[in-house]
Design a protein that fits this description.
The chain is an alpha/beta fold and about 475 residues long. About 35% of the residues lie in helices and about 25% in strands.
């Protein structure tokens, strides 16, 4: 007969040995997801490419990614340990025979059936069968367990949430797209430390940029020799010091020899001073601003944050340029109609909060075509910009709320805190560039790792390609 076990969501209970008869059974139904495969690979360490490498799996016998065989075995263990016999069960023996592969999207039904009882040793023998959606066996076997002898009923333990995220996966997609473009001629400003010189070489090796090293030649060669870096194939444009490096790099842009800037081992102010020079800089009609492209493990898509690095307390017109710059970058990385959330502390226009008034004005500017290419809404608090749960709880109706692509901070302090909190508390990876000049500027920090520098170069390449189009 079938087991009548239907544990409530709040409790888990067993069936003692004396309450179990030969023929009793219990079932579990589970549909395999890609996240199941990833989770099993992480826990077990089994990264056999048949399970985790789509390209490899396509060329193998089953022409698809398949589940680890022991994923099915774990489901059998699940039934034994939670249903029949349930809590208190001790696994003694298990045989398994794997008959068919299980692929992503396949629904597996697990059934264990008691076939024998040993009253003296309180042991049960159970037939174990996993079938697919067509009812055909994919795994068969036999389990022997030591059954509990007394009733156990316990509160069901609430397990922690499991967030499956491949580190840098979002940025890797941008890198893949950028490598389809020709290498971007880039003036690397004062690469006089190992970090910036390695970044220039790596992004060059990946085909993202064609670097022109602008700085004191002797110092650059000394860094390369100390770090054992081969820069013999790269052009070096000799300058006496960092200020001169920034000015010469900007001149290379104006001469048409370079189409992007990458900051090296000098202060941001030195680079930007040369860029904003009214006489010989790279100003355009639009105000310059910085845009982070964040890969956040708990957010399902790229999240752009602006401005966290350039404009301290932007006025309304500056904010309009900041928004437009971010929208243009979103288009360049493949977001056709970006949803722009104008952040403040509340969702209603409140005269005492200037950011709410400016958010309303920016929305009207978008309605009138003064800001183009995106869907704007605001003011929105941070939670209502990125969480559908928060949106539902507050009853907000908005095409942007809960699903923003771009977060526009009210000022630099707020933007910087949002970005840094996501990096250091949520494990987000950040990359970004400065826009609004005649060319994109890769304004990395000395604290940035190689992945950030590579991703920033990829974003600059994609943006430059969009400008060409």
């Amino acid at each position: 007969m079938s087991s009548d076990i239907t544990p409530s969501m709040g409790y888990i209970e067993n069936r003692p040995f004396e309450d179990i008869a030969v023929g009793d059974s219990a079932d579990l139904v589970r549909t395999l997801t890609a996240q199941d495969i990833d989770a099993f690979a992480v826990v077990s360490g089994d990264v056999n490419p048949a399970h985790v490498d789509q390209e490899f799996a396509q060329e193998e016998a089953f022409h698809k990614v398949i589940a680890h065989g022991m994923w099915g075995g774990a489901l059998i263990s699940n039934v034994l340990g939670t249903q029949l016999p349930g809590p208190g069960t001790i696994y003694l023996d298990q045989t398994l025979k794997f008959l068919k592969p299980v692929g992503i999207g396949d629904t597996v039904t697990v059934r264990v059936t008691v076939t024998a009882k040993d009253p003296e040793k309180k042991r049960l023998t159970l037939d174990c069968v996993c079938t697919n959606g067509d009812g055909k066996p994919v795994i068969t076997g036999q389990a022997v367990v030591l059954a509990p002898t007394h009733k156990i009923r316990r509160p069901r333990v609430v397990m922690p949430d499991l967030v499956m995220h491949r580190r840098g996966a979002g940025h890797d997609r941008l890198l893949e797209a950028a490598r389809k473009h020709p290498a971007l001629p880039t003036a690397v400003v004062h690469p006089c430390d190992t970090t910036s010189l390695e970044a220039a070489l790596e992004t060059s090796d990946l085909g993202l940029i064609h670097p022109l090293l602008v700085g004191p030649e002797a110092r650059i060669w000394a860094v390369a020799e100390t770090a054992e870096l081969d820069i013999s194939a790269l052009e070096i444009i000799d300058t006496p010091h960092s200020h001169a490096s920034a000015e010469r790099a900007v001149a290379l842009i104006r001469e048409g020899r370079a189409r992007a800037l990458m900051k090296g081992a000098l202060h941001t102010d030195e680079v930007m001073s040369a860029v904003v020079s009214k006489a010989n800089g790279l100003r355009s009609e639009r105000r310059m601003s910085h845009v982070y492209v964040m890969d956040v493990p708990t957010y399902p898509k790229p999240l752009l944050i602006t401005d966290a690095a350039i404009n301290i307390a932007p006025d309304l017109q500056t904010k309009a340029d900041i928004v437009q710059n971010a929208i243009d970058l979103a288009h360049a990385i493949g977001i056709d109609a970006p949803k722009v959330a104008l952040l403040s502390a509340v969702e209603t226009i409140t005269p005492r909060l200037q950011s709410t008034v400016e958010a309303g004005a920016l929305c009207k500017m978008a309605d009138r075509g003064q800001i183009k290419g995106g869907v704007l809404d605001g003011p929105l608090a941070f939670d209502n910009a990125i969480s559908m749960r928060a949106v539902a709880s507050k009853g907000i109706t908005s095409p942007v709320a809960g699903q923003a692509d771009i977060l526009v901070a009210p000022d630099l302090e707020a933007g910087n805190m949002i970005a840094k909190q996501l990096m250091y508390l949520a494990g987000a990876e950040a990359a970004g560039i400065v826009l609004g000049a005649q060319v994109p500027i890769i304004l990395t920090s000395r604290a940035d790792d190689r992945r950030t520098r590579v991703a920033s170069a990829a974003i600059a390449s994609l943006f430059s390609g969009a400008l060409d189009r």
